[in-house]
Amino acid sequence: MSYDLIILGGGCAGLSLARRLSELGEDCPQTVILESRSSYTDDRTWCFWGEDAAQLTHLVRHRWSWASVAAEGKTVKVDCSAFPYSMIPSLAFYDESLEMISQAPQLLLEAGVSVLSEPLKVGNNWQVETSAGMRSARMVVDTRPLQTPQRQAAGLRQSFVGHEIECAEPIFQPDVAELMHFEPAGEGEILFFYLLPLAENRALIEATIFSAEPLGPDRFEKDMQEFISRRVQGASYTIRRSEHGILPMSILSPQGNPDASYVSAGLTAGAARPSSGYTFQRIQRWATDCAKALGAGLPPLPHARDSMLLRGMDAIFLRVLRLQPEIAPELFLVLFQKVEIAILVRFMSDRGTLSDYAAIASALPSGPFLRQTFSALIASRMP
Hints:
This protein has helices at residues 12-22, 90-102, 221-232, 280-295, 308-323, 328-338, 341-348, 354-363, 366-381, and strands at 2-8, 31-35, 45-49, 62-64, 66-71, 74-79, 85-89, 107-111, 120-122, 125-130, 133-142, 156-167, 176-183, 190-199, 202-211, 237-249, 262-264. It is an alpha/beta fold and 383 residues long. The longest helix has 16 residues, at 280-295.
């Protein structure tokens, strides 16, 4: 079967592009989305700051007007009501995206279909062998995790496990998002907990570790049990659902394909912000731009590269975290204590100005960052 476009993977990136294509009307290319899962479940959440440029805010199910960071007995709590911390549950996004695809005659989602071999260019078309037969198209957008890791200027992973729990008693403060609650960690690791109250008796609690190696769910079991026990203060609770993920925290060098008709996109291809792991809004911006290009008859677009200044700041910050993980709690406490929240939000949402960058840099302790900047410059000049 032949199409104009094949989208490999129907996750966040693949569905985000498909839903934007569905809005093009007659300009929408004939597209098939190949997804290995047979059905969609509420398997993750996406969070972002509710600033003016945020997309798909109608799908937000929870917002928090306060945010906090805690470490070593200190807590910094900030008022973020002007741009509330916001959460979209995946099922809300999946359901609406699938409905939009079903209403667009040029789009077809093939669920439960596995890709059996890597796409091969034959003549002007890409051939993709699948469990449902051969699929062919002029263009491919590949949102699957990259098989060959990209070059990394600073290698960290953000591994996490989350449980949505329901307690028998009211425990949580519904309007405060606890973004980082740091705890002692293993050598070379940064451990913190992330608590989003969904009601007075319900919350999403995640254990997150920054480390050089990706970590599986078993690594978090003991830490999660101990943290939840402390927070519920003896109240009984049930786990409603769980999630696990690994986000890249690296400065990626995009892998360009010499053929413009094939691009990689998604989490491991530049969608994730290196220093934070924020991904959802970056994917939405890419999907909007990529769909616009395809609707105009142009090849698909990869993710846009961050500015040189932003890449440089993220690279130095990641280098400090990787080489001096013990100072991470202090760094994040200082950022939320000394930097105006509006500046932090713009910076974390890729909307920072030069003055915002200067405010961030001046708030952080100069010693570690000057040392790592100097080390990075020396390393860059070595043969």
